[in-house]
Write a sequence for this structure.
């Protein structure tokens, strides 16, 4: 299993990414298990909201380069999170890289602790943040998106909050920071949550509906390119790719 058994407390179901061997990378198996778990949450009247979190020091390392998920399946997973009739809250205490930011950006609310770090590393591998642009670009500050898309620099939770990648950065315990958020979700009615989420998610869903086919094709072409093969090989061999000056 790449997903721990769900836990449930007072209307909140927690789904935990639990594949530390590959840093919770987006394998076909992880994408499939998470999609099935979210579908079960959507159908369960006892679930008011979902918390998505992780074991280990990495929330999600991006694509699993040894057993990658199909881009269309990952796009479907991100859209499923955005369209889920219940809020999805990301709880992050570790690193988030590349495609992991698409998972994070699809969530309605997100909190990260002081040990979290973020980077859009695709450009350094001969790739681009193509499919994850659909949840990210409608929400992120556009100047910051341009900087971090192009440079692949790492940044912390405070910067992630400043550029609207996440909702809040916790100075200390991320669970303490999330407590009032979860309390608010428990006090809201199921219908109120569903209707309110439809309003705030509308522009993100529009991005999926307009651009999904194009970015899936673009992502596939990039992954099949000679530069991407060099970039991914260099990453796995822990060396600089040939184009680094």
């Amino acid at each position: 299993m790449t997903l721990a058994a769900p836990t449930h407390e007072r209307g909140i179901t927690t789904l935990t990414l639990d594949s530390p061997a590959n840093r919770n990378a987006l394998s076909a198996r992880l994408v499939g298990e998470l999609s099935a778990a979210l579908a079960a949450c959507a159908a369960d009247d006892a679930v008011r909201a979902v918390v998505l979190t992780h074991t280990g020091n990495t929330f999600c390392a991006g694509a699993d380069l040894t057993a990658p998920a199909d881009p269309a399946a990952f796009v479907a997973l991100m859209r499923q999170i955005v369209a889920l009739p219940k809020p999805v809250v990301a709880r992050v205490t570790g690193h988030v890289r590349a495609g992991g930011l698409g998972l994070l950006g699809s969530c309605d609310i997100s909190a990260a602790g002081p040990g979290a770090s973020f980077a859009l590393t695709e450009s350094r591998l001969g790739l681009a943040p193509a499919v994850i642009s659909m949840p990210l670009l409608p929400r992120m500050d556009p100047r910051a998106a341009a900087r971090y898309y192009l440079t692949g620099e790492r940044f912390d939770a405070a910067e992630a909050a400043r550029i609207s990648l996440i909702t809040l950065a916790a100075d200390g315990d991320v669970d303490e920071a999330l407590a009032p958020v979860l309390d608010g979700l428990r006090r809201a009615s199921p219908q109120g949550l569903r209707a309110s989420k439809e309003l705030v998610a509308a522009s993100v869903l529009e991005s999926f509906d307009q651009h999904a086919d194009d970015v899936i094709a673009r992502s596939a072409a990039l992954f099949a390119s000679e530069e991407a093969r060099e970039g991914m090989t260099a990453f796995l061999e822990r060396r600089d790719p040939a184009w680094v000056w």
Observations:
- The radius of gyration is 17 Å.
- Residues 82 and 106 are 5 Å apart (CA to CA).
- The mean pLDDT is 96.
